[in-house]
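Table S5 (text form). Sequence records supplied for joint modeling of the two-component complex.
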Amino acid sequence: MSGATSPHAGMTRRNFLKTAGVAAGALGLAGAASMTTTNNWLAPAEAHAEAEDQVIYTFHQTNCGNRCSLKCTVRDGRMANIESNTWEEDQYSICCLKGLSEIQRIYSPDRIQTPLKRVGERGEGKFESISWEEAFDTVAQKLQESVDKYGGSSILFPYSSGLVYEMPLLRKLLGAQAICESGIDMAQGNGLDQTTGDATMGKGPYEVTDWVNTKTLIMVGVNLLESGMTDARFMFDAQEAGCNVTVVDPIFTSTASKADTWVPIEPGTDAALYLGMVSAILDNEWYDEEYIKAHTSCPFLVSTADGSMLKETSTAEDGTETATHYVWDGSRARLMDEVADPILEGTFEVDGVECTTVFSLLKENQKNYTTAWASEVTTIPEDQIIELARKYAQETPSFLLIGYGGNDKYSNADIAGHAMSLLPSLTGNIGKPGCGAGVRGNHYGCHSLTAKLGAWALPAEFVETPLEMQTPLMRTNPSSVHTVFNLGNTFVQHLGNYNTTKEWLKTLDFIVTSDIYYCDSVAWSDIVLPVCTGFETRDECGMIQVSKNHILLQMKVLDPLFESKTDFEIEHELCGRLGFGEYMPESTVDYVKAQLTTDDQAFKNVTYEKLKENNSIMRLDYPDGPYVGHTDQVYKTKSGRLEIYHEGMLGYNQELPNYESPIEAYADNPLKEKYPLQFVQARRRYRVHTQWWNSEWVNQIVPYPTLEINPTDAEARGLQSGDTVRIFNDRGEFSVTCLINNAARPGQVYMCEGTWCRDTGGASYQDVTNDTLIERGKVLPYGANIPMYDTLVQVEKA
Amino acid sequence: MTRYGIAIDLHRCTGCHTCTIACKIQNNIPMGLLWNRVITEGSDMVDGAVGEYPNLTRRYVPVACQHCENPACMRVCPTGATYKDDKGRVEIDYDKCIGCRMCMAACPYNARVFNWNEPHREPDFDYGDKTVPVRSKGVAEKCTLCKERTDRGEEPRCVVACMGRARTFGDLDDPNSEISKLIAERHAYVLLEEQGTKPQVHYFE
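The corresponding structure-token record, covering 1003 residues in total, follows.
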């Protein structure tokens, strides 16, 4: 084992090089004799003390949810320093350890250096280096074959959320299917967004800078200080301004330790907590009666016979549906806009049909979900649930924050999102300063939530094929897909139960992956295309991004390293070979200029040249101060109100939230006899999904992945910190170093998500995760979620 | 006189280690060494917790050179390599350091690191602020309070990089400076006060 000095368990990169059965050239290291390691290649021939510093401004391309503008210093053609750039709104001038440590990761030995061609079996990871000519010719030919044989829909582009350019033109020109799989962490939005009409889990119609106006901030299943690091300062500013912060989480996270109150909860039971809080608010009449009459569906009439709503619907020319509902005015049913003070509760007869109100139905339904019941399910003391509800309803403004990837990774996430949406709806904690409900706006939010960039235009006939089913379903159901153009590490990151994924990958006609690093998905590819980092471009600039009221430009900092190319250049070359050359912009500068050509007045002062002059960042033309959305109390639902009754879910008994346990990780699951521990893959500040595991600078702080386990569970298994442990269930197994941590909840083990197989005994953490999709996913806006945390395992010493 | 120091609000420290990495890039610190560490208090691991679930606490404490008024390291340095400069910073003249490591043994804060081997950098070239002197094998090194930056009138890199805005830099001899006011108003304390080293890095919560 040549990786003897490595702290990683199992396979190492160097180990891999030896065992691959071919010479160093197998990973694309050949072709440049001096380039045997990145270090040798970079070693200076002489001292460079006199080198001139060149300062270049760009942004950090990753998907942590922030978008840091950076000031880079280049010395002798090498990245020598990374600092935060200055934003006009200076509170955003920041960059975390991951952005700064790019100075090493850019030059990582894990970079794919040349195009590769598979020489072994799929998944075996045996490759040989090929020329770009051969790579482009092969990929273009395979794409064309797939189109000729089956049509454009036979090509799927699964892409990672960390990209800023996902080859959108090639996808459209081919008529392919494409998706950044939403099943991994957006499922609470399935419930929440049906109530509010907002997009993606309430993202954006408020700013975290506005938390200084918040009195009660409740965070449920969100480790903000680690997953939204640049917002840490705003939580502390809020606390100093008098905001009381409660964190609900099974794990004693960094955020929990900084909260005024930490409420540990039984994993996957967030919905029960919300339902208990709703009962407390109803029982104690802490709801805002005037608000719910005017701005929610509470007074809307519903047939008691079949649960359908009494309403008039119409469809506008653009296809937008609107609905005007009937309410009871005290003597008869009338349209909602005609009645200032509708009756909230009761049973009425309308044209011979017995009707009641949504509010009456809610009150009746909530009888199943008393605070005592919620306490039993969540393990939170009943008086604490009642007090949390009281604070939320009475010590206002209140803000309810969730995260991508908390309850989203349990089968009942849509119910949690729906139950959660009742809290702002009943108390009016939405559309006012200091209020909000949903995920933090991150870089999409603020005033710039509404920003509209222009686009590079293609003739109208070129459109993507709508996704025919969620990608996890493609693995086990007949689908049109025969060819996969994989952008990033999607085979691991986006799909649970890796063995099922592997079986699917074996059946495909052709797989091409473009990536920067030798991630696990690469091993399953026929052709591998080396992409450069966001700091490297062929053209003068990379891409642009709108973020937090500003527009950011990605300028060229470095020439592409090794033989890598940008996603844009790869797309351009392939389009040329496929006969689409005439539709393509010549360079990223042309593409960006097309995006900056927009009618949106917020961009009226912005041009490409001005952006360059202004160090690659400009504030858009928006009012000062934090953005507060929905101040007009108009929502993007069909009725324009907060719709707590989801008529479309009638067939699933979820028109009002009805509790369901998690599908596997529930308290009295008999499977617990065999697999007694629940396995969570949490998000940590040291990595972003599958990225930064190869950051030697970050690894100086946390050297390798660890499975964290409570001392009680460790003792029962005779485990010590530092032991290698097997984590297994009927789906599969992997191994990793164990770390005993009091912060872990008894019965639950957690690991940072996104680990690489080489650090986990050659297998993936996804080998054990649950991939059962709930039936009602078919009718949910973001489909079913992949319940990766809803997983039971056993852990034993390896 | 000028007596530079840092005050750290421990409630605002999230343990993110951005200061550690910012310090490393600024000062061209090689692999294996760190000038600025973040300790999880009372725990032998990063991000551990004290107590028994669910009765837990956690506190992060960033620790680097405390720039003591009465530095233990300086008193034991046989060559005068370690000195207190005119801005109140504890500095090292690397040319005078003979690598005896007496300073490392004397420092109660374990703030100093030593170049046992030729420095190994990843990436393998000098990075960061090019006005920072490059250290060679056989010398001790530590936080300089970003001497090069603070001489230019800039704040230390850890201060500007802090995600939680936990750090305040300034002149302890100026009673009207923000840092002096914070120390008084927030009842700041120093680490290992009983050692009599009189640190110029203060902590409060």
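Note: The radius of gyration of chain A is 27 Å.
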